Amino acid sequence: MNILALTHIRRVFADDSKNQVPALKDISLTVDKGEYVAIMGESGAGKTTLLNIIATLDKATSGNIMLNGVDLNKLPEKQTAKFRREHLGFVFQNFNLLDTFNNRDNIFLPLVLAKTKYTVMQQRLQPLAKQLEIGDLLERYPYEISGGQKQRVAAARALITQPDLVLADEPTGALDSHNTEKLLQLFEKVNLQGQTILMVTHSAAAASHSKRTLFIKDGQIYHEIFKGDHSRAEYLQKIMTSLAALTSKER
Ligand SMILES: Nc1ncnc2c1ncn2[C@@H]1O[C@H](COP(=O)(O)OP(=O)(O)OP(=O)(O)O)[C@@H](O)[C@H]1O
Protein backbone atom coordinates (compact mmCIF):
# COMPACT_ATOMS: atom_id res chain seq x y z
CA MET A 1 0.00 0.00 0.00
CA ASN A 2 1.48 3.35 -0.90
CA ILE A 3 1.47 6.14 1.62
CA LEU A 4 2.72 8.79 -0.76
CA ALA A 5 2.02 9.16 -4.48
CA LEU A 6 3.30 11.98 -6.69
CA THR A 7 2.11 12.13 -10.29
CA HIS A 8 3.70 14.45 -12.85
CA ILE A 9 4.71 17.04 -10.28
CA ARG A 10 6.09 20.28 -11.69
CA ARG A 11 7.28 23.31 -9.74
CA VAL A 12 8.24 26.43 -11.61
CA PHE A 13 9.61 29.43 -9.73
CA ALA A 14 9.84 32.94 -11.08
CA ASP A 15 13.21 34.46 -10.19
CA ASP A 16 13.92 38.17 -9.51
CA SER A 17 14.02 39.03 -13.23
CA LYS A 18 10.76 37.07 -13.73
CA ASN A 19 12.58 34.26 -15.55
CA GLN A 20 10.94 30.87 -15.15
CA VAL A 21 13.00 28.40 -13.13
CA PRO A 22 11.71 24.85 -13.54
CA ALA A 23 12.90 23.36 -10.21
CA LEU A 24 10.87 20.16 -10.68
CA LYS A 25 10.03 19.11 -14.22
CA ASP A 26 7.99 15.92 -14.11
CA ILE A 27 8.29 13.88 -10.95
CA SER A 28 6.22 10.75 -10.47
CA LEU A 29 6.97 8.47 -7.56
CA THR A 30 5.29 6.36 -4.92
CA VAL A 31 6.47 5.44 -1.46
CA ASP A 32 5.01 2.35 0.21
CA LYS A 33 4.13 2.16 3.86
CA GLY A 34 7.20 0.96 5.75
CA GLU A 35 9.69 2.04 3.08
CA TYR A 36 12.90 3.92 3.81
CA VAL A 37 13.84 6.04 0.80
CA ALA A 38 16.93 8.21 0.38
CA ILE A 39 16.96 11.07 -2.12
CA MET A 40 20.27 12.18 -3.59
CA GLY A 41 21.29 14.68 -6.24
CA GLU A 42 23.61 17.58 -6.86
CA SER A 43 23.07 21.03 -5.43
CA GLY A 44 20.16 22.70 -7.23
CA ALA A 45 18.71 19.40 -8.48
CA GLY A 46 15.37 20.04 -6.75
CA LYS A 47 15.58 17.93 -3.57
CA THR A 48 14.47 20.65 -1.13
CA THR A 49 11.71 21.79 -3.49
CA LEU A 50 10.43 18.22 -3.59
CA LEU A 51 10.61 17.84 0.18
CA ASN A 52 8.82 21.18 0.71
CA ILE A 53 5.95 20.09 -1.53
CA ILE A 54 5.59 16.77 0.31
CA ALA A 55 5.81 18.68 3.61
CA THR A 56 2.88 20.92 2.53
CA LEU A 57 5.19 23.95 2.89
CA ASP A 58 4.94 24.65 -0.83
CA LYS A 59 2.48 23.82 -3.61
CA ALA A 60 3.26 22.21 -6.97
CA THR A 61 2.63 24.27 -10.11
CA SER A 62 0.90 21.21 -11.57
CA GLY A 63 0.54 17.50 -10.91
CA ASN A 64 -1.04 15.42 -8.16
CA ILE A 65 0.19 14.57 -4.71
CA MET A 66 -1.59 12.21 -2.33
CA LEU A 67 -0.43 11.52 1.21
CA ASN A 68 -2.23 8.71 2.97
CA GLY A 69 -5.32 9.23 0.82
CA VAL A 70 -5.38 13.03 1.21
CA ASP A 71 -5.04 15.17 -1.92
CA LEU A 72 -2.52 17.79 -0.76
CA ASN A 73 -3.47 20.16 -3.62
CA LYS A 74 -6.97 20.31 -2.19
CA LEU A 75 -5.93 20.72 1.45
CA PRO A 76 -7.26 24.11 2.59
CA GLU A 77 -4.52 26.52 3.66
CA LYS A 78 -6.02 26.73 7.17
CA GLN A 79 -5.64 22.98 7.68
CA THR A 80 -2.05 22.55 6.54
CA ALA A 81 -0.41 23.19 9.93
CA LYS A 82 -2.70 20.68 11.64
CA PHE A 83 -2.18 18.17 8.82
CA ARG A 84 1.60 18.54 9.08
CA ARG A 85 1.52 18.07 12.84
CA GLU A 86 -0.67 14.98 12.68
CA HIS A 87 0.75 13.18 9.67
CA LEU A 88 4.37 14.21 9.28
CA GLY A 89 7.50 14.18 11.42
CA PHE A 90 10.49 16.38 10.58
CA VAL A 91 14.20 16.01 11.25
CA PHE A 92 16.38 18.86 9.99
CA GLN A 93 20.12 19.35 9.66
CA ASN A 94 20.08 22.19 12.20
CA PHE A 95 17.74 20.40 14.67
CA ASN A 96 15.16 23.25 14.95
CA LEU A 97 14.68 22.85 18.70
CA LEU A 98 13.33 25.72 20.78
CA ASP A 99 15.88 26.98 23.31
CA THR A 100 13.15 28.41 25.56
CA PHE A 101 11.72 24.92 26.21
CA ASN A 102 13.50 22.05 27.89
CA ASN A 103 14.06 18.91 25.85
CA ARG A 104 11.00 17.14 27.21
CA ASP A 105 8.74 20.05 26.27
CA ASN A 106 10.34 20.27 22.84
CA ILE A 107 9.48 16.61 22.28
CA PHE A 108 5.97 17.07 23.66
CA LEU A 109 5.24 20.19 21.59
CA PRO A 110 3.41 18.52 18.66
CA LEU A 111 1.32 16.49 21.11
CA VAL A 112 0.54 19.54 23.26
CA LEU A 113 -0.67 21.34 20.13
CA ALA A 114 -2.84 18.31 19.36
CA LYS A 115 -4.24 18.50 22.94
CA THR A 116 -2.99 15.02 23.89
CA LYS A 117 -3.34 13.96 27.53
CA TYR A 118 -0.18 14.29 29.63
CA THR A 119 -0.31 10.62 30.68
CA VAL A 120 -0.43 9.56 27.01
CA MET A 121 2.52 11.83 26.21
CA GLN A 122 4.53 10.28 29.06
CA GLN A 123 3.63 6.75 27.95
CA ARG A 124 4.83 7.49 24.42
CA LEU A 125 8.00 9.23 25.54
CA GLN A 126 9.24 6.48 27.85
CA PRO A 127 10.19 3.82 25.25
CA LEU A 128 11.40 6.48 22.80
CA ALA A 129 13.69 8.12 25.37
CA LYS A 130 15.16 4.71 26.19
CA GLN A 131 15.71 3.80 22.55
CA LEU A 132 17.26 7.20 21.79
CA GLU A 133 19.36 7.28 24.97
CA ILE A 134 18.05 10.69 25.98
CA GLY A 135 16.31 9.73 29.23
CA ASP A 136 18.84 11.69 31.34
CA LEU A 137 18.64 14.79 29.15
CA LEU A 138 14.92 15.54 29.28
CA GLU A 139 15.10 18.25 31.98
CA ARG A 140 17.99 20.03 30.25
CA TYR A 141 17.63 22.66 27.55
CA PRO A 142 18.76 22.24 23.93
CA TYR A 143 21.68 24.65 24.48
CA GLU A 144 22.94 22.41 27.30
CA ILE A 145 23.43 19.29 25.16
CA SER A 146 25.66 18.20 22.27
CA GLY A 147 24.75 18.21 18.56
CA GLY A 148 24.28 14.44 18.46
CA GLN A 149 22.07 14.58 21.54
CA LYS A 150 20.08 17.47 20.02
CA GLN A 151 19.44 15.43 16.88
CA ARG A 152 18.20 12.50 18.98
CA VAL A 153 15.82 14.86 20.86
CA ALA A 154 14.65 16.16 17.47
CA ALA A 155 14.15 12.57 16.29
CA ALA A 156 12.04 11.89 19.39
CA ARG A 157 9.92 14.95 18.59
CA ALA A 158 9.44 13.65 15.02
CA LEU A 159 8.55 10.12 16.13
CA ILE A 160 6.35 10.79 19.14
CA THR A 161 3.29 11.62 17.01
CA GLN A 162 3.68 8.24 15.24
CA PRO A 163 3.51 10.07 11.88
CA ASP A 164 2.61 8.49 8.54
CA LEU A 165 5.91 9.73 7.19
CA VAL A 166 9.16 11.09 8.63
CA LEU A 167 10.81 13.67 6.39
CA ALA A 168 14.50 14.10 7.09
CA ASP A 169 16.48 16.86 5.37
CA GLU A 170 20.24 16.23 5.67
CA PRO A 171 19.73 14.89 9.22
CA THR A 172 23.39 13.93 9.62
CA GLY A 173 24.78 17.10 7.99
CA ALA A 174 25.90 18.67 11.28
CA LEU A 175 26.93 15.49 13.09
CA ASP A 176 30.32 13.85 13.62
CA SER A 177 30.82 10.29 12.38
CA HIS A 178 29.95 8.65 15.71
CA ASN A 179 26.64 10.51 16.05
CA THR A 180 25.90 10.09 12.35
CA GLU A 181 26.19 6.33 12.72
CA LYS A 182 24.05 6.39 15.86
CA LEU A 183 21.26 8.38 14.17
CA LEU A 184 21.33 6.22 11.04
CA GLN A 185 21.12 3.07 13.13
CA LEU A 186 18.14 4.57 14.93
CA PHE A 187 16.40 5.38 11.64
CA GLU A 188 17.02 1.82 10.49
CA LYS A 189 15.59 0.45 13.70
CA VAL A 190 12.41 2.55 13.66
CA ASN A 191 11.99 1.70 9.98
CA LEU A 192 12.18 -2.00 10.87
CA GLN A 193 9.43 -1.28 13.39
CA GLY A 194 7.29 0.05 10.51
CA GLN A 195 8.08 3.78 10.33
CA THR A 196 8.12 5.15 6.78
CA ILE A 197 11.07 7.51 6.16
CA LEU A 198 12.07 9.82 3.33
CA MET A 199 15.54 11.29 3.74
CA VAL A 200 17.38 13.82 1.60
CA THR A 201 21.12 13.38 1.92
CA HIS A 202 24.38 14.25 0.20
CA SER A 203 26.06 11.30 1.89
CA ALA A 204 26.26 7.98 0.06
CA ALA A 205 27.08 6.31 3.38
CA ALA A 206 23.88 7.71 4.91
CA ALA A 207 21.84 6.64 1.87
CA SER A 208 23.24 3.10 2.19
CA HIS A 209 21.14 2.69 5.37
CA SER A 210 17.95 3.12 3.32
CA LYS A 211 16.11 0.45 1.33
CA ARG A 212 15.92 2.51 -1.88
CA THR A 213 17.86 5.48 -3.22
CA LEU A 214 16.36 7.90 -5.73
CA PHE A 215 18.66 10.14 -7.73
CA ILE A 216 17.38 13.51 -8.92
CA LYS A 217 18.98 15.51 -11.69
CA ASP A 218 17.70 18.80 -13.13
CA GLY A 219 14.28 18.42 -11.55
CA GLN A 220 13.69 14.88 -12.74
CA ILE A 221 14.18 11.39 -11.35
CA TYR A 222 17.28 10.14 -13.08
CA HIS A 223 17.68 6.71 -11.54
CA GLU A 224 16.73 4.57 -8.56
CA ILE A 225 18.35 1.61 -6.90
CA PHE A 226 17.09 -0.84 -4.32
CA LYS A 227 19.07 -2.43 -1.53
CA GLY A 228 17.23 -5.72 -2.03
CA ASP A 229 19.36 -8.61 -0.82
CA HIS A 230 22.61 -6.70 -1.21
CA SER A 231 24.90 -6.17 1.76
CA ARG A 232 25.29 -2.59 2.97
CA ALA A 233 28.78 -2.48 1.39
CA GLU A 234 27.48 -3.66 -1.99
CA TYR A 235 24.57 -1.20 -1.86
CA LEU A 236 26.96 1.62 -0.95
CA GLN A 237 29.14 0.72 -3.93
CA LYS A 238 26.10 0.84 -6.23
CA ILE A 239 25.08 4.23 -4.82
CA MET A 240 28.59 5.61 -5.36
CA THR A 241 28.68 4.30 -8.94
CA SER A 242 25.30 5.92 -9.67
CA LEU A 243 26.44 9.18 -8.10
CA ALA A 244 29.56 9.21 -10.25
CA ALA A 245 27.41 8.73 -13.37
CA LEU A 246 25.01 11.41 -12.17
CA THR A 247 27.72 14.00 -11.72
CA SER A 248 29.78 13.17 -14.81
CA LYS A 249 29.70 15.96 -17.39
CA GLU A 250 28.81 13.71 -20.34
CA ARG A 251 25.38 12.81 -18.94
N1 LIG B 1 12.13 30.47 -4.29
C1 LIG B 1 12.81 30.24 -5.40
N2 LIG B 1 12.82 31.12 -6.41
C2 LIG B 1 13.50 30.87 -7.56
N3 LIG B 1 14.21 29.75 -7.77
C3 LIG B 1 14.25 28.83 -6.78
C4 LIG B 1 13.56 29.03 -5.55
N4 LIG B 1 13.79 27.94 -4.77
C5 LIG B 1 14.58 27.11 -5.47
N5 LIG B 1 14.86 27.64 -6.68
C6 LIG B 1 15.68 27.02 -7.74
O1 LIG B 1 15.15 25.72 -7.99
C7 LIG B 1 16.21 24.79 -8.23
C8 LIG B 1 16.12 23.63 -7.21
O2 LIG B 1 16.43 24.12 -5.91
P1 LIG B 1 16.45 23.19 -4.61
O3 LIG B 1 16.67 24.06 -3.44
O4 LIG B 1 15.23 22.34 -4.62
O5 LIG B 1 17.74 22.28 -4.89
P2 LIG B 1 18.45 21.20 -3.93
O6 LIG B 1 18.60 19.96 -4.75
O7 LIG B 1 17.73 21.07 -2.65
O8 LIG B 1 19.88 21.85 -3.69
P3 LIG B 1 20.88 21.81 -2.39
O9 LIG B 1 21.44 20.41 -2.38
O10 LIG B 1 21.92 22.83 -2.75
O11 LIG B 1 20.08 22.14 -1.19
C9 LIG B 1 17.50 25.59 -8.16
O12 LIG B 1 17.84 25.97 -9.46
C10 LIG B 1 17.11 26.81 -7.33
O13 LIG B 1 17.92 27.90 -7.65
TrEMBL record:
GO terms for biological process: amino acid transport. Keywords: Amino-acid transport, ATP-binding, Nucleotide-binding, Transport. The keyword Transport applies. GO terms for cellular component: membrane protein complex. This is ABC transporter ATP-binding protein. Residues 4-243 form the ABC transporter domain. Belongs to the ABC transporter superfamily. CDD domains: ABC_MJ0796_LolCDE_FtsE. Gene3D superfamilies: P-loop containing nucleotide triphosphate hydrolases. GO terms for molecular function: ATP binding; ATP hydrolysis activity; transmembrane transporter activity. Pfam families: ABC_tran (PF00005). It comes from the Bacteria. SUPFAM superfamilies: P-loop containing nucleoside triphosphate hydrolases.
